[in-house]
Hints:
Largest sheet: 6 strands, parallel
CATH topology of the largest domain: Rossmann fold
Structural class: alpha/beta
Number of domains: 3
Amino acid sequence: MKLRGGALLARALAEKGVSRVFTLSGGFCNPALEGFMECGIPVINAPHEQVAGHLADAHTRVTRGPAVCLVGPEGFANAVPAMMEAWGERSPVIFVTGSSTLKRQGSGGFKEIDDVSIAAPLTKYSVSVSDGERISEIVDRAWKIALSGYPGAVHISLPVDIMFSSFDADAMRDERPFDRGPGRAARAWPCPDDLEAVLDLLRAAKKPVLIGGHGVWWSGAEGALEACARRLGIPVFNVPYHQKLLSEASDVYLGLADVHQYHPSRDALAQADVVVMVGARLDNQMNFGNPPLFPESLKLVCVNGSPEEIEQNRAADVALLADPGAFFAALDALEPFAPDWLETNRAWRAAWVERMQAEIPELDGDRIHPLELALDVQSAMHDGDWLVIDGGNTHFWSEIAVNMAGQRGLRLGNVLHPGTFSMLGVGVPFACVAKLNNPDKNVVVISGDGAFLSGGSSIEAAFQEQLPIVVVIDNNGGLDCISQQQERMFASQRHFATDFRDIPFHSMFEGLGGHGELVERRADLVPAIERALASGKTACVNVRTVGHISPIVAAMTSKRDKASIE
């Protein structure tokens, strides 16, 4: 029996349990698309290759199972930004791109591009299939690399002559591994002596702190994190720019480890004697492990599940190679800490919420502050609903509001937002995937106007797939995050080249067959959101707001004490 290369690719991915493929259908991809159709794997056709990549990335983040982004050779360049975003979050997306013929490689073939070299710095593995009989082997290799150690995206380039040519259906099936199912990723077990050194530090500690990051999520260890923190009485913080590991309902979860957006973490780190950061990197967000974020007085321990993470965290006082789940299990050897430390952190959080509420400035007339917008949006949501955030200042204010609303009792299903690279335009694709996987829950996007313009074409995917998400646009008439920086940096104290015209975003949704409303008064905001949720349609609430600098932008533009700009 003979099958086209594209069909062999589809069969190999089906064997791995791939549940969805995201694409912009192109002629180069047709044999693979036929294969996915015959294998019964749902394919979502996006209006742009970057959108397809963001959809695949979001699906992978939500399900923790690799999704596929399939694009043609010219579409590869459009998908690179999504590849970069997935790389920043270590999201194990399988990027498959059609490419020019292998036969004429290097001679200027139709739509020829060196996609393997371009993708290499943004993926864990980038390879071109040179023999159709090796398709199953390469898929198996790419899959295991994507999920092993610190996960990450991979890239398979399938030349068009191999995509369309026919090969034996059982090619190389007489070689190991005979079982090419999804399998389980290998996990690192801690060296007993190294583990004991960390346990000794914690035994001597009085005020320990746990910070959870990407590695906890990808190893599926957030339940173990919460269980051990609750038993021991240790406050838990979340690295910034990553979906929440623990629910706001957790009595040990204290918010983001970000001293600008969330001041209680500054208090906790200033007084802590041991900080254990699990599954995260000492990068710019963590000030590279340095003061003032991590004072010299504390011991900084990094626990990571792969050697590459350990190498990244060279600044740690103590490094431990261990799967997060294995490490949390080992903490059973410790006795609980005095409860006053956790209670002190909880009191700091409650006081911060009240202070932030009191510091919202009183604006003239009916102008709406971005923090008021974010709080009002969440007041219209229910426990279990999903919130997606997209933008610059919109993102920062919304993160603050998530912590405030959580302290007051809202238990969101989860929060999705741009990752390490703060890439604009991910909001709608992320919301589409959240709704696909949680059809009985409301999914709301809070997007800046600039962020929506960056990825606005993605809304067609929501209409096409009949996904009733609600997009709330923080419409301040420009790139407010940049404007605020310019006004504090430029000698003229003015902003330049950052303004938009008054864009009727709500009319765009109405024209596409959805629900749209314009809100100009704060009193009208919550009722408008409730009507949008009740409409059962893809909806937009276009909210005119006033730009206001967020704490993190203020820190970057005045004191310059945020390491990410240095």
